[in-house]
Amino acid sequence: MARVKISQSGEGVQRVVDESSPLLSNTRRGSSSSEVVDSSVDVEQVTPVATASDDPKLQAQKTSTWAVVKIVSILLVGTFTANADGSLVMATHPTIASEFDDLENSSWLFVSFALAGAATQTLYGKLSDIYGRRALLMVAYTLFSIGCAMVGVGRTMWQVVLGRVISGSGGSALNVLGLLLVTDLVPLRDVAAWQAGINLAATVGRSLGGPVGGWLADTIGWRWSFLGQAPIFLLAVLLCWFFLPKGKQVGKGEEGAEARGKPIDIEKSSLARIDFLGAALLALFILTFLLPIEIGGTKIPWSHPLIFILFGVAAVFGGLFAAVEEWWAKEPIFPLELLKHRDIILTYVISGGQVAAQLGLMFSVPLYFQVTQRVSNTVAGIHLFPAVFGNAVGGVLAGYLIRKTGRYKSLLIIATVASMFSYSLLLLRWHGDTNAWESLYIVPGGFGAGLVQSAGFISIQAAANPKHKAAVTSGMFLTFQIGMILGLSCVSAVMMETMRWRLDALLEGMDLSAVVRKQIIAKATSSVDYIDHADKKVSAAVVQAYVEGLGFSHGFSLISSALALIAAVFVREHKL
After folding, report:
1. Quick one: which of 460, 475, 359, 445 has its CA closest to 409?
2. Are residues 356 and 485 in the same domain?
3. Are 368 and 488 in the same domain?
4. Out of 19, 55, 470, 560, which residue is the most buried by the measure of CB atoms under 10 Å away?
């Protein structure tokens, strides 16, 4: 194996570069030095050659920009389609679940996706360090393709949910690997700008996914919305195979183990370096902690012994995970030392709170308009666009401002305040007779979410040790997944419980018996189409109960953003 030692001028640091070096160098270019980058891509494209007549910083910036453009262009295919999938499900979930007479379980179309993502999220960062970003990205695209195909051919609600689980296990890698590929190439200060470009493609996907998916559901059926995605992700696999450079992120695990004073076995296989036990315990902790939140109050009462048993089991798995990561794992899947850093924890709280609030909103908006105005899937999807537009503006603006000023804390505060303003308007004004102008009240919520997506990543990258880049990035996306599950589960539970309670009270006022009331509530929570077939007075009661339930869900979003605001106030800003 040929090895070349490169000396870092100005710091006296030597780095060994060979054919197993990182895919794209984890370089931070400062004001006084720059590193030579090694990978299997064309040397003329990536490796700047410093001469007496050339400015090394300008040369590095020029060539790195070209490399990033090539890689990001490939990432955009999967990013666009995956985000279109998300808004597509948001727009059509009432129709999909109603086809199986299972509307009350429609949140599982999202929760199953997010649970699978949370269970696999932390593995992708470490696996990509060992096997390379390209290989893991191809696996992720393949899983997403298989999952979409299974959803399209599913004949029961739970077959569809299984397809969402497989898609979620692949989808959890797309964002984290994309961000890692970008941060491998560019200085931290420029990451937000490049990420904003990726976010823009994601936003376009989310913008088109709802209306186009709704239109397909109204014309040829919702199944083709998913079947059509499968070949697109297979195309993305081929693009990765032919155009993404090969390479591996190696050596960082050994550095981390050495820093923690733990033994290093340099002869062990790459697979043995993976902390599978830690990953399994983390997945079990997340599952057993979030499952009672999802089923409590809807499937079984909150006072049911199973709820307490699941929370107790979650505590056991959480303790075992902490013990394994601290004393057993040589290369932890998530170094617990990161949880000792105040700014990392606070940024996770901000991101999780904002995602929970915004996903709760995105879940409720299509249902609100389908219930109150009986709109088609296409129109329900269009009603998501204001929030998506706000998200795009927030993401692009954050990237520009961070690159221009090097500051991000104020953006986190502005984001949470904007979101709180949005949810307050919904609480005060959305009571069933919403006009076109009032439907724009969701714009500030999307704007705040977009700001946090860009500023939050910069906050954790600036606060963390560079050797933990993959871990903190995976942790951020894990936070997104947990926030998504909490938001969807809590909003669904609050909305359905309030709806049942209010509908029962309204029906009781019509002098209906308990048996009849129970039958009506079961039908109303199984399909939104029941509104069209019920008696006029009963139909009006169902709509009113849904509106009040959705109002309480906006209250949850407001509380989540308020917690994020408190965390944002105490985040320390690091110099970029």
Report:
1. 460
2. yes
3. yes
4. 560
Torsion, CA 541, CA 544, CA 549, CA 550, rounded to 10: 140
Stated as kind and residue range, the H or E segment containing 14 is strand 13-17
Phi-psi region of 10 (alpha: psi -120 to 50; beta: other; left: phi over 0): left
Of 109, 83, 81, give the one whose Cα is nearest residue 94. Answer: 109
The pTM score is: 0.69
Least Cα distance to 576 among 190, 197, 194 occurs for 190
Query: Are both 318 and 217 inside the same structural domain?
Result: no
491's enclosing H/E stretch is helix 469-508
User: Residue 404 burial (CB < 10 Å; 0-12/13-18/19+)?
Assistant: exposed
* Number of domains present in the structure of the chain: 2
- The 10 Å Cβ neighbour count of residue 197 is 18
Query: Does any domain span residue 287?
Result: no
Residue 27 near residue 37, CB atoms below 8 Å: yes
108-131 vs 133-153: helix axis angle to the nearest 10?
A: 160
Q: What is the pLDDT of residues 89-146, one digit of tens each?
A: 877 888 888 888 887 777 788 778 877 887 787 777 778 877 888 888 899 999 999 9
Q: Tokens 């076109």 identify what position? A: 436
CA distances in angstroms from 264 to 168, 278, 329, 465, listed in the order given: 34, 18, 11, 20
By C-alpha distance, which of 494, 479, 545, 147 is closest to 334?
Answer: 479
Q: Between these two residues, 265 and 318, which has the higher pLDDT value? A: 318
Rounded Cα distance between 560 and 564, Å, is 6
Residues spanned by the domain of 167:
62-249+334-499+553-569
